[in-house]
Amino acid sequence: MSAAARAVESTPFTLEALGDRALLLTLGSRVDAALNARALALAQALRAAALPGIEDIVPAYASVCVRYDPCAFAQSATVAPFDVLADRLLAALAQAAADTPLDTRAPLDIPVCYGGEFGPDLDAVAMHARLSPDEVIARHVAGDYRVALLGFAPGFPYLLGLDDALHVPRRASPRTRVPAGSVAIGGAQTGIYPRELPGGWHLIGRTPLVLFDPARTPPATCEPGRRVRFRAIDAAEFAAWTT
User: Fold this and answer.
1) What is the CATH number of domain 3-94?
2) Angle formed at CA 22 by CA 8 and CA 72, multiple of 5 degrees
3) pTM of the model
């Protein structure tokens, strides 16, 4: 049995309605890599079930939101569509395929130009961690990350797997403008701003990749569950990517 199937089988969760068009499966309330893996496994199992009437399946740190068309689950005036959907979801999870692992593709390569104008907070992070800027970069690129979820803005990946030494509290004063592609650290997580946004995380570098494009399929470069590795580049290579 795969890790994904074991996570689905062994993890208790609660079900609750989010309005009349969404359902939330909740496994816990903490940010934890193992718990997030279970949430990703649940989402994957539900996608594999391909139940008619499901409009979207959105995993988070420790929950999965299922958006649905209530008309597809309206069987009678005495049974709510939510109850019908809940029964079908539970049946689908009970029969989840045992050979469907989490995303096994090679890690997504994210080139990053660190420090300077690209990462104005690199020195501050280094000082907090009692490391040199080069050591911060070395530890950041050595991490094996997984996209826990997309949130805050379309295409913004929250990545778990940050070296403990690089955990740093968010900035006391958020910026009103953070450049698109900025690679940042906030608490125990690292992430990437997909476009110019306000933000309070520490900026340590920037990637030339376009992380979100609604004209693409899928529109987000980083999908939940995908493994990610960062790679250091210099300013010349950054410029070559953008020309």
Assistant:
1) 3.30.1360.40
2) 95
3) 0.86
